[in-house]
Write a structure and sequence with these properties.
The complex is a heterotrimer of chains A (about 350), B (about 290) and C (about 260).
Chain A: H1 2-24, E1 32-39, H2 47-54, E2 58-65, H3 68-78, E3 84-85, H4 89-97, E4 132-143, E5 167-170, H5 173-183, H6 193-206, E6 210-214, H7 219-223, E7 229-233, H8 234-243, E8 248-250, E9 256-263, H9 272-283, H10 285-295, H11 302-308, H12 310-313, H13 322-326, E10 328-329, H14 338-350
Parallel strand pairs in A: 1-2, 1-3, 5-6, 5-7, 9-10
Antiparallel strand pairs in A: 4-7, 4-8, 4-9
Chain B: H1 2-34, E1 35-37, E2 43-45, H2 48-55, H3 57-90, H4 93-104, H5 111-122, H6 127-135, H7 146-170, H8 174-182, H9 187-216, H10 219-224, H11 231-241, H12 250-288
Antiparallel strand pairs in B: 1-2
Helix pairs in contact in B: 1-12, 2-12, 3-7, 3-9, 7-9, 8-9, 9-12, 11-12
Chain C: H1 6-29, H2 46-53, H3 55-87, H4 91-101, H5 103-106, H6 109-122, H7 129-154, H8 157-165, H9 170-199, H10 202-207, H11 215-220, H12 230-259
Helix pairs in contact in C: 1-12, 2-12, 3-7, 3-9, 7-9, 8-9
Classes of the chains: A alpha/beta (about 350), B mainly alpha (about 290), C mainly alpha (about 260).
């Protein structure tokens, strides 16, 4: 009896598997392969297909990761030779320091001229030699005006006792600690033990007020109005606001973080020409616009932004003003000082609330 | 003599497998727990990591709560799961296996998605909130409570308790119970003297399969109550955040080693229950021969 | 047979309800008009449309199924073999061996994943389908051993020996006498490894290579945005298909019973 069930289920599964394998292996393998390693769900659905159609000599092998650190670990210890990666700012600066990246000759990129110049040459890649911005955004607080009656313009509202168990906290060492440091008036790239300790104590002080911590799990409760506030990235705020029009986003006056996910080519890439071709393709106006619309994070491609229309251009969350950007700081690699951050963060996360 | 040699030979493939894929990875953890990568590239012996992992108050606290959550979940799984296995065994053979598979089927749905569903059940403005409204109770959310973690673990690991107990019940001679009853044993006696000893191997397997993964899980606490950090979360964090070019965190390795020792000791303790019985049987057999 | 067992059925029913409540939620919300997982705003099939447009999801489901089927079968063979050997050991050696074999179950998955990856890299086996399969077999074997071992302990050695005395070859005696007794354990081991394999994320992440993501890897890497409800749609479809197959597999038996 049991055997029968199992064999039937297995037979079914086998059939689907084999069918899948056949369709998967349909294409020829003469093509030059581009190994592309990106965040999950972070590229428009048809973009890769379009690229392969226009450039039949290339085949893109696509692979996804969940965090910068996971990606880094795999790059360093797996021996897989990827051709194109999209890490975040501080990780790029670390990889530059460790000599893991190849220089990109931007003069060979036809569409590089559309990339907003004010968004390149930042501290994580000062000469813009290694990276081409893919998406960017700022950090801030998303809040529900129905539950928060006062104006949100300062980080201090996250420590307001009025909102006990109404606040959700972002669980990300660099981002969360960075914003707290900023609220204290320090740099987000500090290596000063005293400043870090101060940020740590401030977080421990606020911990009893915060209902939960998370990255992926905390967005929906805000949409559903279960909680009043969340510290998050503008890209995520866009997603939340698309689902609930009442929600708003604010970048506190003390300053915040401006972040980038940029395209880089690893030093051990076997197909840098292919990678360059793909980068150029992703910077092309029609493609960049299509991609930006799907991803929902701000695009650094100026023409693509125009193509997206006024709705995007005038949205202060999607396209923060110069004045907001000026009070934001970018993350870069701080080397061994990160140990202090990690230690402080662990203390915060493990501090018991009761 | 030849027979003995044969027996030993037959065990060889098993040991090759175990050494290659269990002992070597294990050895790597032990290695990284005791050796630090030097800047030049060599390795240096150190007790620093081990010392850190057993003296840090936060880590000790995490070990304790993780063992607590796992133990509570295991006990709940046993109390809920044993009757399920027992009743399953009583159902007519015609649909028994079908029902058994029903208990396993939810686990074929993706874990993350399932836990998301669990979360939306517990959310304040989700279905739980809906239920509160319906009942006219002013109830809160389960998210961020210890109960959320326990429910999540029981939900996820219950089938691992039911299955082995059910398996060990299926081959049990039902006549034994009837015989005991005929001899005048009451229900409690039948349970403690007949049922329990005979299903002990299944219970031990069940406890092992629930307790072990519960101690180290990090996805369930992270998704349902991320205010606390279980030891699984800490190890995860250590390995992820401290990604150095060697990719292995010394403290992370040391913590996993300590965790492993704790779990092995507790499992050996659990195994005693079933083994005491078997060692006695073994001795008796030898005496008879 | 026709006796009623209200308490028994109620108890089993309630436990199933507990296990299926989240599955029901998951399926209901796959029809949601919005991207929301806990507030239902209206009926729509758009997530199913999205699912069929998403090659990434379907391809990774296929990958997951291939690995789960193959690894659970291989692990069941290895695990049953292992359980037979361990079951014959003296109690004290047996305990030690079991404890070592169980280590992959206790180890934090990231530790197992990383150390296996390093092992493969060291042996210069390129990461991909092969390494993923080995890794899955590796962590499945303990589950098979755990479920077959209780059966091995209950085995009656004398019937096997009697079969041999009657002239059966060891292989024949094993198939006809030992295996049927082990079967419930073997099946639950197989089911369990299939389940574990389908569910695993971390170990798969570190041991797979480019172009062969499993479903969990794909879903877990979706951290930049909310996990789309098309994943729910996928799970709902999978669930319905498996459920129907189970029902069909269960039907003929009824007929047999009547005829017999």
């Amino acid at each position: 009896m049991g055997k029968k069930i199992i064999s039937l289920v297995l037979a079914l599964v086998m059939c689907t598997s084999i069918a899948g394998m056949l369709t998967a292996c349909g294409g020829g393998s003469e093509k030059s392969k581009i190994y592309f390693y990106n965040w999950g769900d972070y590229i428009g659905e048809d973009i890769i297909e379009l690229f392969e159609e226009e450039n039949p000599e290339y085949e893109v092998v696509y692979d996804t990761f969940a965090t910068n650190e996971e990606m880094y670990q795999k790059i360093v210890s797996s021996g897989i030779e990827y051709d194109l990666l999209i890490p975040s700012d501080y990780m790029i600066s670390r990889m530059i320091k460790e000599d893991l990246l190849m220089e990109i000759d931007t003069s060979k990129l036809e569409n590089y001229k559309y990339i907003d110049e004010s968004l390149t040459h930042l501290e994580y890649d000062p000469d813009a030699k290694y990276s081409v911005p893919y998406t960017w955004g700022v950090m801030g607080i998303v809040y529900n005006p129905k539950l928060v009656k006062e104006p949100v313009d300062s980080w201090s509202i996250l420590w307001d006792k009025k909102y006990d168990q109404q606040i959700l906290m972002l669980d990300s060492v660099r981002d969360t600690m960075g914003c707290v440091l900023k609220s204290l008036g320090y740099s987000m790239n500090t290596g000063d033990a005293k400043e870090i300790a101060e940020a740590r104590d401030k977080l421990i002080e606020g911990k009893p007020l915060w209902a939960d911590w998370g990255v992926d799990t905390v967005k929906e409760p805000i949409v559903n109005e279960s909680y009043a506030m969340l510290l998050t990235w503008s890209g995520d705020a866009m997603e939340i606001m698309a689902e609930n029009e009442d929600i708003e986003f604010a970048v506190p006056k003390e300053g915040s973080n401006i972040f980038f996910d940029s395209m880089v080519i690893p030093k051990n890439s076997r197909n840098p020409e292919g990678a360059m071709k793909l980068i150029d393709f992703l910077c092309r106006t029609d493609i960049a616009a299509m991609n930006a619309e799907y991803i929902g994070y701000s695009t650094p491609q100026t023409e693509a932004l125009k193509e997206l229309g006024d709705e995007y251009i005038n949205d202060p969350t999607y396209n923060p003003s110069k004045e907001v950007i000026d009070r934001c700081e970018v993350f870069y690699d701080i080397g061994d000082s990160m140990d202090l951050w990690n230690e402080a963060w662990e203390r915060v996360r493990q501090a018991s609330v009761d | 003599m030849k027979n003995k040699l044969n027996k030993a030979l037959r065990a060889v493939p098993l040991y090759v497998w175990v050494i290659l894929f269990t002992v070597i990875p294990l050895f790597m953890i032990v290695f990284y727990a005791f050796f630090k990568v030097q800047d030049g590239g060599g390795y240096e012996f150190t007790m620093e990591f081990i010392q850190k992992s057993v003296t840090n108050g936060d880590y000790i606290h995490s070990f304790l709560i993780s063992v607590k959550y796992a133990a509570v979940s295991t006990v709940v799984c046993l109390i809920v799961g044993y009757p399920v296995a027992y009743f399953l065994n009583q159902i007519s053979e015609r649909i028994r296996d079908f029902i058994m598979v029903l208990f396993l089927l939810p686990m074929w749905m993706n874990f993350i998605i399932r836990t998301y569903a669990m979360r939306s059940l517990m959310e304040k403005n989700g279905l739980l909130g809906f239920l509160w409204d319906f009942l006219g109770i002013k109830g809160g959310t389960l998210i961020g409570t210890e109960a959320a973690i326990i429910i999540g673990m029981v939900y996820n690991f219950l089938p691992f308790m039911i299955l082995p107990i059910y398996t060990s019940l299926t081959k049990m001679d039902r006549g034994l119970i009837e015989a005991a009853q005929d001899l005048g044993a009451n229900k409690i006696k039948v349970f403690t003297k007949v049922l329990l000893p005979l299903t002990m191997p299944g219970i031990v397997s069940g406890i092992t399969m629930v307790f072990m993964p519960s101690v180290t899980t990090f996805v369930i606490p992270q998704m349902l109550n991320n205010k606390v950090m279980t030891i699984g979360s800490i190890i995860e964090y250590k390995f992820k955040q401290e990604a150095s070019s060697t990719a292995v965190s010394g403290v992370g390795a040391a913590l996993s080693m300590v965790l492993m020792i704790i779990v092995i000791i507790s499992m050996t303790f659990v195994n005693r229950f079933s083994d005491a019985e078997e060692i006695r049987e073994e001795k008796e057999k030898r005496r008879v021969n | 047979m026709k006796k009623h067992h209200p308490f028994r059925n109620l108890y089993l029913g309630l436990t199933l309800l507990f296990l299926y409540a989240p599955i029901a939620v998951l399926i209901v919300f796959s029809f949601n008009a919005d991207a929301n997982r806990s507030v239902f705003t209206g009926f729509s099939l758009k997530w199913y449309e999205k699912l069929f447009e998403s090659d990434a999801l379907i391809q990774s489901l296929v990958n997951s199924l291939i690995v789960a089927v193959l690894s659970s079968i291989i692990a069941t063979i290895i695990g049953t073999y292992g359980a037979l050997i361990i079951g014959k050991m003296r109690a004290k050696y047996r305990n030690m061996t079991i404890n070592i074999i169980n280590i992959p179950m206790i180890n934090a998955e990231i530790v197992t994943g990383l150390s296996l990856m390093m092992l493969f890299v060291f042996l210069s086996i390129p990461l991909g389908f092969g390494t993923l399969l080995i890794a899955h077999v590796m962590f499945n074997v303990p589950y098979v051993i755990m479920s077959v071992l209780p059966k091995v302990k209950q085995l009656n050695n004398s019937t096997y020996e009697a079969a041999l005395d009657l002239g059966a070859t060891p292989g024949y005696a094993f198939r006809k006498v030992v295996l049927p007794d082990l079967m419930p354990g073997v099946i639950s081991g197989l089911l369990m490894s299939f389940t574990m394999s389908l569910d695993d994320f971390i170990i798969s992440y570190f041991t797979t290579g480019p172009g062969f993501p499993t479903l969990s890897v794909t879903i877990n890497s979706m951290t930049k945005k909310k996990v789309p409800l098309s994943v729910n749609a996928l799970s709902a479809l999978m669930f319905v298909i498996v459920f129907v197959v189970l029902l069909i597999a269960n039907l003929p038996k009824k007929g047999e019973k009547k005829n017999g």
